[in-house]
Design brief:
Order of helices and strands: HEEEHHEHHHEHEHEHH
Subcellular location: Cell envelope
Keywords: Signal, Transport
Number of domains: 2
Oligomer: single chain
Protein name: Glutathione-binding protein gsiB
Largest sheet: 4 strands, mixed
Helix content: 25-40%
InterPro entries: SBP_5 (IPR039424), SBP_5_dom (IPR000914)
CATH architecture of the largest domain: Roll
Family: Belongs to the bacterial solute-binding protein 5 family.
CATH superfamily of the largest domain: Dipeptide-binding Protein, Domain 3
């Protein structure tokens, strides 16, 4: 990697279109937002891969994925809309698998400055999300309602705090924070499902208390990059809770960031 480093970037720019991994496949071709082709790595240090090639295609529309799966043009698909997943459940030639993982869908608010630096505003937003509605209409096949940072069923998981859509309570909190008529803000989100539909649902309920959230869509680098650099107001995202099945692995992901780590050093 050092031979590809430029201006102290540790080869990061080179890795944008290249790879330096040691896995069972190596990069063959890559076209952004279109296709990624990998071939079997002849130098892999473990038993060779069963497949000779793997092709990953990017499709924006969930319905396109459903139709291609049904026709046999795709072997595996993800990030599909609930309606398309349910339609595929009726196809005997297609298997739909759902496995509970430790990742979490969330709404983030920047506490750096502005409206969300006020704790009462953040508390108000907690009561401006229709958790039950989102869970029922948008999340089947994606997740279950859970309002704690530790994965459900894991030791040390506490009972949910019971946040629910309560517009009257949210308006009272906003008035106490100095925003009786609400305010305008932005809501960043990936242009994929179920993220976009979650953002639209949140935008709708925020408006009931006068918060006008303009949705900004983008790629992972654009959305999560803005969050890491603290250049955002609100964001709908998904984060991992660690690979280890332990409460510490979950909490560490949410409590330690590179900025905090620098300050600790």
């Amino acid at each position: 990697m050092q031979q590809h480093a430029r201006q102290g970037d540790w080869g990061n720019r080179w890795l944008t279109t290249n790879e330096a991994g040691s896995g069972p496949f190596i990069l063959e071709t890559w076209q952004a937002k279109d296709v990624l082709r990998m071939k079997r790595n002849p130098h892999y240090w473990r038993p060779e891969a069963k497949l000779t090639r793997v092709v990953l295609r990017h499709f924006q529309e969930s319905q396109t994925l459903r139709l291609m799966l049904a026709k046999g043009d795709l072997d595996i698909a993800n990030n599909m809309a609930v309606a398309d997943i349910n339609a595929l459940r009726k196809d005997p030639a297609v298997t739909v698998d759902s496995v509970q993982r430790g990742t979490m869908y969330y709404v983030a608010m920047s506490m750096k400055e502005g409206h969300f630096a006020n704790a009462k505003v953040r508390e108000a937003v907690r009561y401006l999300i229709d958790y039950q509605g989102i869970n029922k209409a948008l999340m089947p096949g994606y997740g279950v309602l859970h309002q704690r940072p530790i994965k459900a069923g894991m030791p040390a998981t506490l009972p949910d705090p019971g946040y629910r859509l309560d517009v009257a309570r949210a308006k009272k909190l906003l008035a106490e924070a100095g925003y009786p008529d609400g305010f305008s803000t932005t809501l960043r989100v990936l242009a994929d499902q179920p993220f976009l539909n979650i953002a639209i649902a949140v935008q709708s309920t925020l408006m009931q208390a006068g918060i006008n959230a303009r949705i900004i869509t983008g790629t992972g680098n654009q959305i999560y990059g803005a969050m890491r650099e603290r250049r955002f107001d609100m964001l709908v995202g998904r984060g991992g809770s660690g690979m280890e099945p332990h409460p510490h692995s979950s909490l560490r992901r949410w409590s330690i960031t590179p900025i905090i780590a620098m300050r600790q050093n």
